Structures are given as C-alpha cells and as structure tokens.
Amino acid sequence: MSLSQELGNSTRLSGDPGNGGRGGGGNGSLGGGGANGSADGGNGTAGGEGHSMIGLFHCIVRISLLSSFVCVSLLGNTLLLMVFHRKPQLLQVANRFILNLLISDLLQTAVVMPWVVAGSLPSFWPLSENACTIMITLMHLFAYTSINTIIVVSIDRYLSIIYPLSYPNKMTTLWGGMFILSTWVFSLIQSAPPAIGWGEIAFDKDSSLCVVLWNTSPSYTALNILLSFIGPVAILVGCYGMVFQAARRQNALVHPVRPRGFQEMLEESNLGGEEPSEEEEEDGDAIIPIPRTFQASPKRCSAKPKPYHCKAARVIFVIIASFILCVGPYCFLAAVSAAVGAAPPWVNSCIFLLFFLQCCLHPYTYGYMHKSIKKELTVALLGLFCKKPPRGQDSSTENNFAMTMTMTESRAFPSHFSLTSAWKS
C-alpha cells in the first residue's frame, strides 16, 4: 500500500513541472514545452515569467490609455451637453441627432469602458461569463447607435443641401424623433444575436478582454461587418460626395473664375511702382509714377477667398477618416479572426483602443466643428474661466460677443442658398 502511494506521489511530482510550463507560458508552446518533463519545466517557468512581465506592462499601458479616453470623452461630451442645456434654441432637428450621438458615447464611456479597465489585469475577470456577454452586447449596442446616428446625420445634411426648399417640410420634429428612436431599435436588433446564441462571447485570458469568437459563427461575422462598416461607409461616401459636388457648384457661383485679361490689366498697371526712365533722370528730379488704373488692395488681389468646397472637403474628410480609423480595424479583426484564428493580445488591445477612441473624436467632429455650437461653447468657457461682469451685464456681454462672432463668420463665409446653413446643422 505504501509502495503504491510512493509511486503515485512520484508520478505527480514528475508531472508538476510540465504543468508549470503550461501555466507559466499560457500554453504549451509559449511555456517552453510543458510535456517534456522536469527539465523542460524549468524552461517553461522562465518563459512564463517573461510572458507575465510583458503582460503586466501591456495591461498598464492599456489601462492608462483607456483611463485617459474616459476622461477626455467625459469632458468633451459633457461640455457639449452643457451647451445644449444652456441654449435650448440650438436643439433643432439636426442638432438633436448630434445630441443622440453624444448620449450614446457617454453611455459607452460610463458603462462599458470602466469594466474594460477593470478586466485588464492579466488572466482576471471579476464577473462571470454571462457578465462578459452582457458587456459586449452593451458595447455593440452603444456603438451601433453611434454608427446609425452618424448615418442619419449624413442623410440629414444631404437632404438639407440638395433639397433646401422641401427640407423643412420633410424633416419635422416628429420625423426627427422617429429617426432617433429607430437608431436605438435597430441597434438593439443588431447587437442582440450573441445574447441569444448566434455568435459566441468569451473572456480571452491572453488578452484580458471580453471578445467575440468570430470563427464560431461566420454568418454573424459577415452580417456584423456589413452592417457596421461596409454599409455605413457606402452611405457616408455617397451622401457627402453629393454634398461636396454641391459645394463646388456653390463656390463657382459665389467666386467665378476671373478672365485672363483682368489679370494682365493688373500687371500692366503700375501698382508696384516703376523705375524712372533715363529722360526723367536727366533733370535730376525724381518723378513718382502714378498708376494709370485703379489702386487695388494687395490683399484683395493676391489673397484668394477661401472656397466653399475646400471647407466642405476638410469637414467630409475628418468625418469619414475618423469613422474608418475607429470602426474599420475592429471589422478587419473580425474578418481575420474568422478566417485565421485569434489575434495576438497586443493587436486586440490596439483595435479596442481605436474602437473606443471614437467617443473622444465625436465631440470634435460633430460639435466643435459646428459653428453655432463652437460659438456657444466659447461663450460658456469664457463665463467659467474669466471674471464675471457686474450684475445686469452678463446677457449684454454674451450678446455682444455672439454678435461679433456672427458678423465675423458672415464676412468670412457669406450665406448663399442653403450651403452655409447646412454646415451649421
């Protein structure tokens, strides 16, 4: 009886190094060969220490970046919410779409991102697998709501520019509310499949992240890529492409191309002054030449007015590029993971960071680049950080500042047709 016990103990002792190799390295190959006995088990322990140190540094960097994203997103979205609360007049139908986008980003920041930070310790998840499924479902819900709202904003701007006369009758407050409600309903439908068994969600201990196992359901992966990236990009490019064409036509009407003879006439006129001729210098008197034509302002002749289509191109590029930068890698990861397998931990971390970065970019692309919101945000910040004027002068000071901003913008970008008003929406 004692002999069998000793044999059993020796068997367990000889197998422990191999298990240690597997545990230290995350799997047999990373640990240094967990099945090769006690000699290889030592190598597995050494490999496991190196892997844990890399994982710790990796998680520290990820936690730091995610924490900074949380702070920036909360600050930016809260400031814009403060502007809308301060000036309810800004909440036209178009700006209500922006408000819906801010709310979805705030929910993503306040509900999902803290749990990603909490689960970023190596091989640690404080809750159950069901909680992991709930977290990914909520992450997709808020992300889909942002994506669908961005689509609605692009369609709204397209309608306001291409059909300016019929736009107020089509995009009423009722229709705006229905569009906002539809973004949440469709997002709930799009994010629900993993919760009901179509697609699988699990906690990846190597990446310390809750992830979708894309290779378990290729059909769900293809649908997710289509609805979250390919379809939205096609709609954004189509709508904003037609907006850009309208901006070019508008610029051609406002700033027509000058004929060549006009430029030649400017060059022939002595605007820059001419040297006196030899006959004029014989008498020793310097003769100042007088221009034969009108004296034009150098700034007005040399400086070209800022075209509408350049402003439109800048705004369109920022909107589409930020969307592709944040959502594109996540869908690319889904496609590659479904075909090849799980990605390395650092790839998962980078893609998740880019995915959450959109919560920080939306306040700028859809808020600060908005003329009216930018003006009111400047007034609000001046009221917070500057010395308050005496009682009774607050409203007059703000009105004077707002009037100055409006006059400046009207001189820089005169209103023609509906293009400028569309960029304000």
From TrEMBL:
Keyword Transmembrane found: yes
SUPFAM superfamilies: Family A G protein-coupled receptor-like
UniProt-annotated location(s): Cell membrane
UniProt keyword annotations, A-Z: Cell membrane, G-protein coupled receptor, Membrane, Receptor, Transducer, Transmembrane, Transmembrane helix
Record field: transmembrane: 63-85, 97-118, 138-159, 171-189, 222-243, 315-340, 346-366
Annotated segments matching region Disordered: 1-44
GO cellular component terms, A-Z: plasma membrane
Keyword Ribonucleoprotein: no
Bilayer disposition of the protein: Multi-pass membrane protein
A GO term, aspect molecular function: G protein-coupled receptor activity
Domain G-protein coupled receptors family 1 profile positions: 76-366
Top-level taxon of origin: Eukaryota
Bias type Polar residues, positions: 1-13
InterPro entries hit by this protein: GPCR_Rhodpsn (IPR000276), GPCR_Rhodpsn_7TM (IPR017452)
Compositionally biased tracts (Gly residues): 17-44
One family name in Pfam for this protein: 7tm_1
Family, as annotated: Belongs to the G-protein coupled receptor 1 family.
PANTHER family: G PROTEIN-COUPLED RECEPTOR, G-PROTEIN COUPLED RECEPTOR 101-RELATED
Protein name listed in UniProt: G protein-coupled receptor 101
Species the sequence originates in: Sarcophilus harrisii
